[in-house]
Structures are given as C-alpha cells and as structure tokens.
Fold 4a-hydroxytetrahydrobiopterin dehydratase.
Amino acid sequence: MTEETANQLMPQVSGWDLVKNDCGTLKLHRSWKVKTFTKGLEFFQEVASVAEAEGHHPDLHLVGWNNVKIDIWTHSVGGLTENDFILAAKVNGLEVQHLLSKKLSKPAQNSG
Ligand SMILES: C[C@H](O)[C@H](O)[C@H]1CNC2=NC(N)=NC(=O)C2=N1
C-alpha cells in the first residue's frame, strides 16, 4: 500500500509508528520497556502465538536487556499490507501489562 494509505490506517494501531528505512521500505514499529530480560522473552511468546495464528510474522528485537521492539512489514511485497495492521492491532490486544516496566514504559508519568 502507499504511504498515504498507511497514514490513513495509523489511527487504528495506537502506539505504533510508521517508519521508512533507507531503502524506502515502510514498516510499523512499536517499542515497550519490560521488567526483566525473561519477561521480554515471555512478551515474544505472546506475540508468537498471535503471529502463528495469523500466519504473519513480525521482526522481534530484544535490545539493551529490557527494550522490546517490533517491526511489522510484509517481506513478500517489500512494504505494508493490511495483514501488517491486523497483526499490529492484535499485538495491541495482548494482555502484557504485567510484563512491562511500570517506571519506564510510560514516560509521561516519570518524575525526571
Ligand atoms: C508462506 C507464508 O505465508 C509466507 O512465507 C509468509 C509468512 N509470514 C510472513 N510474515 C511477514 N511479516 N511477511 C511475509 O511476507 C510473510 N510471509
């Protein structure tokens, strides 16, 4: 889909950003801060269940021990399709609050 179409769908996947890499490939990106490394892996397990059910698979990154970052795009078309937005919405629907760092996941509530 075009960047314009993707932008129109963005309100349906709150928390996700529309990003474009150096090659111009559009992707959906979202990051979370988890409590521990192991909880990051648990987060991935939850995402994997959704991905397998959808037959659509995100790129999963666990960076700096507690940053979960996910990119969703469709490799076969080198960009975004409706399936990417469906997967992002389903990831948003996961009950993962107990895995997230309370202090760092919500910057708006930070004192510093
Ligand atoms: C045959 C199978 O459906 C394809 O290989 C799927 C699997 N999951 C996939 N996931 C994503 N994100 N992009 C793809 O192009 C893709 N292709």
Observations:
- The pocket of H2B is lined by residues 55-57, 74-76 (CB under 6 Å).
- The two ends are 40 Å apart (CA to CA).
- Residues 3-103 form a domain with the Gyrase A; domain 2 fold (CATH 3.30.1360.20).
- The chain has one domain: 3-103.
